């Protein structure tokens, strides 16, 4: 089944109210959540649009029916490439984060890890997970991923924290399920997701056993509160507003206060040895998703900078051209890393095709390092107007309105209306609450930069490079190329 956005709204607004904004309970129809819901609507619309069938949709591996691609388990490189393209397409339309990839990455991580836990321990998590996924596909559900714990004192392990709720944990194990408590934080779209998919956030040791827990609960599960921070251009989303002003996002602190999770929805319960594996499977899949969304953010920044250059009538200046080319480098290198991660990925025992971790991490690290630089290019080309421009009303009413219409023109070839719209966009993209959200998401979303460094130090074959240098230095007589040959042969069969 493919839900329409109207069906999604109907299901959403029927949920038990457990959202809190500013200390007050609100329904999911609260207007402050609407800008985020508008983004989700794009994902439902794309799946209904004939020209995007096959990109926005896929065939379920569990039901055989047509499903939204966000719920699909990739089976081959093509599926990963389709996901990457879908993210770039959706994110361009939403003016940024499309918000569906975290749920997608979580179900992939669970599909792989549940199978590996079962193979190692004889558990039955994989069957449980596939039963859950069947319903997820049949009902066309949308899940967010709650991985990040509030973490308390960063220098202490989960089991060493003075407040055990700093990391979500199992409080009680029963015949029919588990009871969990704790805080997850920065959870995007939880306030308007059907399901919250919970994963551990880090590597664990034996004493952290109760923190090794993964499960899914409906967004309105009993005992769970979503303390929500919506972000959007609240002063600019009036009637007839530009598209960018109608989209936004919400992030939640998810407080689990003795929440009961039925056994059939529990996918890890105490297997601390797999904590790191599950956390990394999500993170690496998510870093691959960034190779779709970050190029879209670069596209938006690049386009806005082009318009600012045009409005300043400096589009042909050589330093402008040089700076614009940096956007192309950031967007397309990140995209290329995603393509390489898909092509060089591997089939896991679960059947899920997983992106190559090295390419996923180098792409994500590049975009994380570039993000403030890209905003700086926009600022340099636009000048200071993004933070000093008078309010919209000053151009519409009052004694100076006509004078302000002359004031806003810099390039005589542009109309008053277009000049004003360009500088308003520059402000919204470059100097608003949304802009700050995108900058910080660009650094920390998918894990802080140090996490990519750790992943690369773990996975990159430095010994291979050392052997090469030893051969070139004349220390070793032979150069062993067999690994490269095997890799080339593998790629030939995959593409
Ligand atoms: C906009 C946005 C959206 C997000 N959406 C989601 C989401 O949907 N789901 C989700 O699960 N998460 C989400 N996140 C969370 C994101 O994954 C985290 O922000 C990221 O992993 C960093 O964690 P943190 O914010 O707790 O920072 P910290 O981990 O506290 O990092 C802060 C600094 O402390 C350092 N540090 C931390 N621990 C140690 C240590 N033990 N030793 C030495 N140094 C240390 C780090 O290297 C870093 O420099 C989102 C974040 C943002 C900003």
TrEMBL record:
Entry GO MF terms: 4-hydroxybutanoyl-CoA dehydratase activity; oxidoreductase activity, acting on the CH-CH group of donors; vinylacetyl-CoA delta-isomerase activity
HpaB/PvcC/4-BUDH N-terminal domain location: 4-268
Keyword NADP: no
Classification via Gene3D superfamilies: 4-hydroxybutyryl-coa dehydratase, domain 1, Butyryl-CoA Dehydrogenase, subunit A, domain 2, Butyryl-CoA Dehydrogenase, subunit A, domain 3
Domain HpaB/PvcC/4-BUDH C-terminal: 278-474
Entry-linked InterPro entries: Acyl-CoA_Oxase/DH_mid-dom_sf (IPR046373), AcylCo_DH-like_C (IPR036250), AcylCoA_DH/oxidase_NM_dom_sf (IPR009100), HpaB/PvcC/4-BUDH (IPR004925), HpaB/PvcC/4-BUDH_C (IPR024719), HpaB/PvcC/4-BUDH_N (IPR024674)
Its EC number(s): 4.2.1.120, 5.3.3.3
A Pfam family per the record: HpaB_N
UniProt keyword terms in alphabetical order: FAD, Flavoprotein, Isomerase, Lyase, Oxidoreductase
Keyword Lyase: yes
Residue numbers binding FAD: 188
Coiled coil ranges: none
Protein name stated in the entry: 4-hydroxybutyryl-CoA dehydratase/vinylacetyl-CoA-delta-isomerase
Organism: Desulfotignum phosphitoxidans DSM 13687
Gene: abfD1
């Amino acid at each position: 089944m493919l839900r329409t956005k109207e069906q999604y709204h109907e299901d959403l607004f029927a949920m038990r109210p457990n959202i809190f904004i500013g200390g007050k309970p609100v329904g999911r129809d609260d207007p402050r959540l609407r800008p985020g819901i508008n983004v989700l609507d794009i994902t439902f619309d794309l799946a209904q649009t004939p020209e995007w069938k096959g990109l926005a949709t896929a065939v379920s591996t569990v039901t055989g029916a047509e499903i939204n691609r966000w719920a699909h388990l990739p089976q081959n490189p093509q599926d990963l490439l389709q996901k990457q393209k879908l993210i770039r397409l959706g994110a361009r339309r939403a003016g940024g984060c499309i918000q569906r990839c975290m749920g997608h990455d979580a179900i992939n991580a669970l599909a792989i890890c549940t199978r590996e836990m079962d193979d190692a321990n004889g558990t039955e998590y994989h069957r449980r997970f596939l039963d859950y996924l069947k319903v997820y596909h049949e009902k066309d559900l949308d899940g967010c991923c709650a991985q990040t714990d509030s973490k308390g004192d960063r220098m202490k392990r989960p089991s060493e924290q003075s407040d055990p709720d700093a990391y979500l944990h199992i409080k009680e194990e029963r015949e029919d399920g588990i009871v969990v408590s704790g805080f997850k934080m920065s959870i995007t779209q939880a306030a308007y997701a059907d399901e919250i998919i919970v994963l551990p956030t880090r590597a664990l040791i034996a004493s952290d056993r109760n923190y090794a827990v993964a499960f899914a609960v409906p967004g309105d599960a009993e005992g769970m509160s979503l303390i929500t921070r919506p972000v959007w251009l609240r002063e600019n989303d009036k009637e007839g507003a530009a598209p960018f002003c109608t989209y936004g996002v919400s992030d939640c602190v998810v407080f689990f206060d003795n929440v009961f999770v039925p056994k059939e929805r529990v996918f890890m319960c105490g297997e601390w040895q797999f904590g790191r594996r599950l956390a990394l499977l999500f993170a690496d899949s998510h870093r691959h998703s960034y190779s779709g969304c970050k190029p879209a953010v670069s596209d938006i920044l690049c386009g806005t900078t082009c318009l600012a250059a045009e409005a300043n009538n400096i589009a042909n200046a050589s330093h402008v051209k040089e700076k614009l080319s940096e956007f192309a480098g950031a967007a397309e290198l990140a995209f290329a890393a995603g393509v390489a991660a898909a092509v060089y990925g591997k089939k896991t025992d679960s059947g899920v095709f997983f992106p190559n971790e090295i390419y996923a991490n180098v792409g994500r690290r590049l975009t994380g390092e570039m993000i403030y630089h890209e905003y700086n290019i926009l600022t340099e080309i636009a000048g200071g107007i993004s933070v000093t421009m008078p309010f919209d009303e000053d151009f519409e009413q009052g004694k100076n309105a006509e004078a302000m219409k002359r004031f806003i023109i810099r390039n005589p070839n542009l109309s008053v209306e277009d000049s004003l719209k360009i500088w308003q966009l520059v402000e919204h993209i470059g100097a608003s609450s949304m802009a700050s959200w995108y900058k910080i998401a660009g650094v920390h979303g998918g894990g802080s930069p140090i996490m990519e460094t750790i992943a690369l130090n773990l996975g990159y074959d430095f010994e291979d490079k050392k052997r090469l240098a030893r051969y070139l230095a004349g220390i070793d007589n032979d150069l062993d190329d067999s690994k490269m040959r095997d890799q080339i042969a593998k790629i030939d069969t995959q593409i």
